[in-house]
Amino acid sequence: MKKGVIFDLDGTLTNSLASIKISADTAIGKFGFGPYSEEDYKVFVGDGAQVLIERCLKAGGDEKLEYFDRAYREYKEVFEKYCMYQVEPYEGIRELLAALKEKKIKIAVLSNKPHPRTEDVIHTLFGEGYFDAVLGQCEEIQRKPSPEGVFHILKKWNLKPEDILYLGDTGTDMKTGKSAGAFTIGALWGFRKAEELLENKADALIKNPKQLLDYLD
User: Which of 10, 43, 137, 160 is the most exposed place for a label (fewest CB within 10 A)?
Assistant: First the structure.
């Protein structure tokens, strides 16, 4: 039996696309870029806020990222306001988490969303202390696809990579889980398609959250 599950946040636990879109569109719009569609943002997200803004600007023709510093600073300010805008857990997530807790399996969040905003989302939707560990992007730990965040959580739990499942919805997540040595599952309800997850060595793909329970043994 596995002893823990580490979850990605955006596109895995929560559908946060609307909050990311309104924040980024508002920020880059001040400099004449965007707006972009939700389908565009499904491609832009996944590698942290800095990369998100870089992709937005490059898609608008700013290949040299001349507007990056100003746009990124604006995004961080705007995102504080819109962090929870229309953000909800995906269908079946609450039931999955409850089932894991009933089995005494530890649960964690590892996100490339800035750490303060990661905590905002998790504490608002699930309550403070519901997860056994919550880790967003911070200066002390390299962002995904580095496995450093996974190892940080494992050390806290005194577990080994083979003791956990890692669930995410992007190629970056698959790289993270595989680099850490964990059994890595792709969430097909998220932002990216099966092809990307398989190309990045997903061990399994699931169509709904509760299917994760099939991989605990």
Answer: 160
Cis peptide before 145 (omega within 30 of 0): yes
Q: What is the CA radius of gyration of the chain?
A: 17
Q: What sign results for the dihedral spanned by CA atoms 185, 130, 156, 80?
A: positive
- Mind listing the pLDDT tens digit for each residue in 123-155? 999 999 999 999 999 999 999 999 999 999 999
The three-state secondary structure class of 53 is: helix
- pTM comes to 0.95
CA distance 56 to 34: 8
Domain endpoint, select from 59, 82, 105? 82
Question: What is the separation, in whole angstroms, between the first and last Cα of the chain?
Answer: 4
Residues 99 and 187 in one domain: yes
| Structural domain harbouring 21 | 17-82
Out of 56, 82, 108, a domain closes at 82
Give the phi and the psi of residue 44 in degrees, each rounded to 5: -70, -35
Shared domain check, 71 and 99 = no
Among 147, 135, 138, 144, which residue's Cα sits nearest to residue 109? 135
Average pLDDT across the chain, whole number: 97
Q: Do 140 and 152 belong to one domain?
A: yes
- What is the number of domains present in the chain? 2
